[in-house]
Q: What sequence folds into this?
């Protein structure tokens, strides 16, 4: 009911793409982790390769050491020099050097270095007798230097001294080409890295394809269908294949959409039924939301009353729709039901002036009631207004008046016919006497007196009829209700005699005056007396009585008719309710008009009835003196 603001769907251009987010983050996270792992593996592989080459170089040195020791034992110095020279020419070996224990170069593949002191090639004290590491070479390029200490043995003590004081005979230093070793290490690491990258790309591709088919595309389908449902396309459903969690979610989503579609269909049917029900009411009806004064429902009669279309009414404020205002009505000038009704079930009846779309204003009678509904967990106050165009009511009242006056035609014709017949007989008698020369002044005076009296009767009848049929003047005047009641009784005398009804009037000696409209009060008496005639189809007595109490005049119309059933008694003043005792079809508006007229005169009407005993209508009207004092 209350129009909720629906968030606008973000356009595809400005909307963040789940696919892009997932893809970017997947590649960032997976790529970063993979590169870190690959870097660690490559560095680890390279170091391991270098360590393995270092260990291999130490193994080669051990073999060289054995060959050199064998040459030393044989004291084959030329052979030893030849071995060093040939080793120095082996590809991958930069230099072979043999030092004595104090660091002097004794043999070298580069003869220019023989005899030089190279203490830096000696192993530090306490270090292992064999070690290998990458160090800067003499030519600036890095080399893999493998150092082996040649231990003193028993066969060598003759030349090198005792084992205890001379544990080392010499130091074997072999410099390998580090660039080739490292190049091979990097080449192997690069191959290993390329294989890792290929495996990473394959893994990411498979993962992305699975993620797109199993997650992203189903989520995108759910988003698209939910957007269509938001726009009112309740027939849309998801198409997620498989039996995983998202497929189950899609099936449940479809079932939810089915229920939503069914509920929306039922809601539309209920709205159509409610609108049709309201459109069937003759009075204009609208429903106003108190918090913002907006009309949320209105029927055809209301739109026709103001000349509005259905598209304009709903959502428009009540003061703009019916009063043509841009701001709410001033509470001190207009009785506003939305402001005055503070509790559920409270009612208000007031008169407003509405304005049609063409600018013409008209008076309406508004009957309003407040109801509170539970909307989304909150209490929503609403005002239901039934609006009656008083100009239509006046037209109905006038038509009812003419209808009732038509029923008086026979009685009025009889009341006028008899005096006119007497006038005619007097004129004819006078003419005959004049013609026969038998007319005296006394006879002429008698005829004229008779004619004058009968003419007075005709004038009295027409006066009563004119007073009754006069259009209401909508201004207050002092009315002698005794005279008005007597005139009405006389107008219905012929109707009473034709139905064997005895009419009796009881009025005070002094005139009883009220402040009101003479013709409308006569119409009240006419309707009540005619109802009494209708109730006494077999005849009886009808009594019209006027009495006074302090500040009030009471007019009672008492009949001895059939009476009103107890179930019908609360409804007799409702429009179009008719249960005439004589079996004739009535308009059902007479007593409604009577009640409205009495209430407009600040009075009230009561009824008491018993079956087969009769009915008494009591009309209470404020006396003119009391009304004038209240006005002053």
A:
């Amino acid at each position: 009911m209350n129009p909720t603001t629906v968030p606008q769907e973000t356009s595809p251009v400005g909307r963040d793409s789940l696919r892009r987010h997932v893809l970017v983050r997947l590649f960032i996270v997976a790529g970063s982790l993979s590169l870190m792992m690959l870097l660690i593996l490559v560095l680890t592989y390279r170091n391991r390769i270098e360590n393995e080459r270092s260990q291999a170089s130490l193994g080669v040195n051990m073999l060289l050491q054995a060959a050199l020791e064998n040459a030393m034992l044989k004291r084959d110095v030329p052979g030893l020099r030849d071995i060093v020279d040939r080793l120095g020419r082996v590809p991958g070996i930069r230099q072979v050097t043999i030092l004595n224990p104090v660091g002097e170069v004794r043999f070298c593949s580069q003869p220019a270095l023989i005899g030089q002191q190279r203490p830096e090639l000696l192993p530090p004290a306490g270090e292992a007798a064999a070690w290998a590491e990458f160090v800067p070479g003499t030519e600036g390029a890095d080399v893999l230097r493998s150092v082996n200490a040649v231990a003193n043995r028993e066969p060598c003590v003759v030349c090198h001294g005792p084992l205890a004081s001379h544990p080392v005979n010499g130091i074997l230093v072999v410099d390998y080409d580090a660039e080739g070793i490292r190049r091979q290490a990097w080449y192997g690491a690069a191959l290993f890295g390329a294989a890792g990258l290929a495996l990473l790309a394959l893994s990411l591709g498979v993962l992305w394809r699975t993620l797109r088919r199993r997650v992203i595309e189903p989520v995108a389908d759910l988003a698209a269908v939910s957007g269509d449902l938001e726009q009112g396309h309740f027939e849309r459903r998801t198409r997620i294949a498989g039996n995983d969690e998202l497929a189950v979610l899609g099936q449940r989503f479809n079932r939810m959409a089915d229920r939503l579609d069914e509920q929306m269909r039922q809601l539309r049917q209920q709205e159509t039924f409610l609108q049709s029900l309201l459109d069937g009411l003759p009075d204009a009806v609208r429903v106003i939301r108190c918090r913002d004064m907006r009309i949320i429902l209105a029927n055809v009669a209301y739109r026709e009353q103001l000349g509005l279309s259905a598209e304009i009414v709903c959502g428009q404020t009540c003061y703009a729709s019916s009063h043509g205002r841009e701001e709410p009505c001033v509470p001190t000038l207009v009785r506003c039901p939305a402001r005055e009704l503070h509790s559920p079930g409270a009612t208000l009846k007031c008169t407003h002036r509405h304005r049609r779309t063409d600018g013409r204003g008209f008076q309406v009678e508004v009957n309003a009631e407040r109801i509170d509904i539970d909307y989304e967990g909150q209490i929503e106050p609403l005002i239901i207004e039934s609006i009656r165009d008083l100009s239509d009511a006046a037209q109905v009242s006038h038509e009812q008046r003419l209808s009732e006056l038509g029923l008086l035609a026979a009685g009025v014709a009889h009341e006028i016919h008899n005096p006119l017949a007497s006038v005619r007989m007097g004129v004819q008698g006078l003419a005959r006497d004049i013609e026969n020369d038998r007319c005296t002044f006394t006879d002429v005076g008698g005829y004229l007196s008779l004619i004058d009296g009968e003419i007075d009767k005709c004038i009295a009848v027409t006066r009563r009829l004119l007073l009754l049929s006069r259009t209401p003047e909508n201004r207050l005047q002092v009315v002698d209700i005794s005279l008005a009641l007597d005139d009405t009784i006389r107008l219905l005398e012929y109707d009473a005699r034709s139905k064997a009804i005895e009419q009796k009037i009881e009025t005070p000696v002094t005139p009883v005056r009220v402040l009101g409209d003479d013709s409308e009060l006569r119409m009240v008496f006419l309707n009540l007396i005619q109802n009494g005639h209708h109730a006494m189809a077999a005849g009886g007595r009808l009594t019209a009585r006027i009495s006074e109490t302090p500040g009030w005049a009471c007019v009672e119309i008492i009949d001895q008719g059939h009476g009103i059933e107890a179930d019908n008694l609360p409804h007799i003043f409702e429009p179009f309710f008719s249960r005439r005792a004589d079996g004739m079809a009535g308009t059902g508006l007479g007593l409604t008009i009577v009640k409205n007229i009495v209430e407009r005169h600040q009075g009230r009407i009561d009824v008491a009835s018993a079956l087969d005993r009769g009915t008494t209508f009591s009309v209470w009207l404020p006396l003119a003196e009391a009304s004038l004092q209240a006005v002053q």
Summary: Confidence is low (pLDDT under 50) at residues 1-15. The chain has four domains: 15-233, 280-389, 408-469, 477-632. The longest strand covers residues 361-375.
